[in-house]
């Protein structure tokens, strides 16, 4: 009798165990799908954020390129520029000693740079190349009135109205800035009346009478001053 009762109980227990196992597997699959779905959503959000960042970076890059392109130096035929050592004149010849004038240094300053007035007429770019190639220097930069007058006094004896110094205009429109060929700071100006606003050209010439500055076309041939 007891054996007949035990058999149904064992069968019932087995069936219950099977149902419980199936339920557990079913719940586990639901939780797993929910976790996977959540992971996919979060990964999708991350990819979306990364994509957005890429777009922002690209747009920022495009903005920078646009700004840079609008500020690019386009000197065209004027060629007011910092000289490229690789663009030296093929037929460039260094000035003869008799074609140069030494500009006195500051009194008592033996370690100061040397300044040389070259009488030979050159375009602005060519003059800068002479200073670079022949004297390992640049067209002179002028940072105070006393030095400006010293240059003017040394140049007033030559039969020319103007001489090149190292100033030039870089850039266009809102990006237009005055620069020196030696890269020094633009911290002084001695402009003639109406200059530089009414000036024609992009390179700076010093007037041998009075020492004032004027803008001149860079292709003009003028004497020049080198600093080295």
TrEMBL record:
Residues 74-90 have a biased composition (Acidic residues). The keyword Cell division does not apply. It holds the Pfam family Lectin_C. Residues 1-17 form the signal peptide. PROSITE patterns: C_TYPE_LECTIN_2. Keywords: Disulfide bond, Lectin, Signal. It comes from the Eukaryota. SMART domains: CLECT. InterPro entries: C-type_lectin-like (IPR001304), C-type_lectin-like/link_sf (IPR016186), C-type_lectin/snaclec_domain (IPR050111), CTDL_fold (IPR016187), EMBP_CTLD (IPR033816), Eosinophil_major_basic (IPR002352). Residues 112-227 form the C-type lectin domain. This is Proteoglycan 3. It comes from Vicugna pacos.
């Amino acid at each position: 009798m007891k054996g007949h009762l035990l058999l149904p109980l064992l069968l019932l227990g087995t069936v219950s165990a099977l149902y419980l196992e199936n339920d557990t597997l079913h719940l586990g699959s639901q939780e797993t799908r929910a976790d996977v779905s959540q992971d996919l959503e979060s990964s999708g959000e991350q990819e979306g954020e990364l994509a957005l960042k890429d777009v922002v970076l690209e747009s920022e890059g495009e903005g920078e390129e646009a700004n840079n392109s609008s500020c690019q130096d386009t000197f065209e035929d004027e060629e007011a520029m910092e000289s490229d050592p690789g663009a030296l004149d093929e037929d460039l010849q260094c000035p003869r000693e008799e074609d140069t004038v030494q500009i006195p240094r500051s009194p008592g300053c033996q370690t100061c740079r040397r300044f040389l007035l070259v009488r030979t007429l050159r375009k602005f770019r060519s003059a800068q190349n002479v200073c670079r190639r022949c004297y390992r220097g640049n067209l002179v930069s002028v940072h105070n009135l006393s030095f400006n007058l010293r240059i003017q006094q040394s140049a007033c004896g030559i039969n020319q109205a103007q001489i090149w110094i190292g100033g030039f205009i870089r850039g266009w429109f809102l990006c237009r800035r005055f620069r020196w060929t030696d890269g020094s700071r633009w911290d002084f100006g001695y402009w003639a009346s109406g200059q530089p606003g009414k000036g024609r050209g992009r390179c700076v010439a010093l007037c041998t009478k009075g020492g004032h500055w004027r803008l001149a076309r860079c292709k003009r041939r003028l004497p020049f001053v080198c600093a080295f």
